[in-house]
Amino acid sequence: MTLLFFWVFLGVMALGVPIVFALGIAPMVSFIAEGKELFLKMIVQRTFAGINQFPLMAIPFFILAGELMNRGGITQSLVAFANALVGHLRGGLAHVNIVTSMLFAGISGSAVADTSGVGSIMIPAMEKDGYSRKFAAAVTAASSVIGPIIPPSIIMVIYAFMMNVSVAALFAAGVVPGLLVGLALMAVPAVISKRRNYPKANERASVKRIAEAGGKAILPLMTPVIILGGIIGGVFTPTEAASVAAIYALILSVFILRTLTMRELPQIFLRAAISSGAILLVVGTATAFAWAATLSQIPVQLSMLLFSITDDPYLLLFLLNILLLIVGMFLDAGPAILILGPILAPTMIGLGIDPLHFAIIMCVNLTVGLATPPMGLILFVASSLTRLSVEVIAKEMLPFLIVEIGIIFLITYVPVITMGLPRLLGFA
């Protein structure tokens, strides 16, 4: 099989066809053009086999947990806690926005949920407090990339399924890089707020106020503790952990905090089902696409191409990061992982790169791509919240993107940032 299917895929994507159809159409056209109609039925089989996997049950449950937490007003308690911690700094609400995203990441696992949930609260609050709307949108979009890095993470579940990597190990490996991204991002508003004279709170919050705000946020913040603690302790599998997270979110929102009513649940379940169905359909078609890529020996050809340039692993990692940043500008993180993971991972592992380390490099890189033009999904969500153009938000985000790219290379060349916690927990 030739690379015809790959060029068909790019051409169909350029025409604006949704990626789920592009992933299915490309191998079909290629098989027909090459007279290999017998393989057509295999596309359907591979698509169904790609979805019919027990580990993927974690995806709808994590999405449901995030929907319940988001619609249940949990974000407000996280904002209050973050405000008590960092609201006294210059540009306090910008820091609150970032810290809230770090806290929310441990609940939702989704950058889009972070942008819509945190942004709907923080953008109006920042604008009311004297921040420009474009700066508020930029902070929200930039910090939302932390969502899929700090566990739980939907894209990590997808990567683990595709590449046979431990979900628990991936979750553990994402903690430190996620926190590092958040702390590094806080340096940007610290500088910009001083130059633009953005406001800060009148006084530092007292220990009592921090304790009170933390007490109100403690139950939602127990979500990642329950997930990671249960997986690491052997109480339940990652898939079961997702269902436990959904049940915990349901009990917390409906019966304990009472921020949701039973009448609202059908709509929440429907939204979660639609989102899950869209993701799983992409997983299925991407599995068929990856199978076609294997038949065409793309991994072998890519390895030969890379080694023809250089055999230095450091330079190859640099080129890989550039490639992933470019891909992230045009493809969503999930489909990009499904398409490129089976192609790139064998090559990098063959160079001696730890599979867990490469997984985090790829996940973080493509997650940052969600906030880069022209196709960054987070940018469009922020645009809909603020009614600003994507171009205006992207321009304001440039300093944040520079910091995030710097962290990507730091994670790449200092493996202990990624591998330290998994090794401590016995995963590597």
Distance from N terminus to C terminus (CA atoms, Å) equals 37 Å
Oligomeric form: single chain
The structure class reads mainly alpha
Number of domains: 2
Major sheet details: none
The tally of strands reads 0
Q: Count the DSSP helices.
A: 21
Share of β-strand residues = under 5%
Coarse morphology: globular
Order of helices and strands: HHHHHHHHHHHHHHHHHHHHH
Structural Rg: 22 Å
Could you report the average pLDDT, rounded to the nearest whole number? 85
Helical content band: over 70%
What does this structure look like?
With 428 residues, the protein is mainly α. The chain folds into two domains: 48 residues, no CATH class; 371 residues, no CATH class. The protein has 21 helices and no strands. The two termini are 37 Å apart. The mean pLDDT is 85.
What's a concise summary of this model?
The protein is mostly helical and 428 residues long.
Characteristic key phrases:
428 residues; mainly alpha
SSE inventory with pairings:
Layout: H1 4-14, H2 19-33, H3 40-51, H4 58-71, H5 74-86, H6 92-108, H7 111-128, H8 133-144, H9 154-163, H10 167-185, H11 187-196, H12 207-232, H13 238-256, H14 265-295, H15 298-309, H16 313-328, H17 333-350, H18 355-368, H19 377-386, H20 390-413, H21 416-424
Helix pairs in contact: 1-2, 2-14, 3-14, 4-13, 4-14, 5-6, 5-12, 6-7, 6-8, 6-10, 6-12, 7-8, 7-19, 8-19, 8-20, 9-17, 10-18, 10-20, 10-21, 12-13, 14-17, 15-17, 16-18, 16-20, 17-18, 18-20
